Give the backbone structure.
Amino acid sequence: MKLVLTIDDSAVMRQMVKFTLESTGMYRCLEAEDGEAALRQLEQHTPDLIVCDINMPRMNGYEFTRALRQKPAFLATPLIMLTTENNEEAMQKSKDAGATGWMSKPFQPEKLLSVMKKFQL
């Protein structure tokens, strides 16, 4: 079973991602409400993939992604930005921070599962 960390300040969005992934029986999800909480999760867990929002309090998705990529154990961990920010500037900032994928909210469950397959998860 693959471990996925979902980071979003919206509990509803975290639950939607969790339900989509866990209903397949192939994934187990951890949740964090912002980048700071996610970094604490990484002290105890090593996810196979991270799904991260951009706009969050305390530590946003860009800041989290840069902090994640500073940790040698997480240099190659796939990170998908899942966000309402749907413009070229946000996509480029995400890529520059170290994101490996991009999805717009609201998301289609089958598209999220398709992205998981692209990462061979």
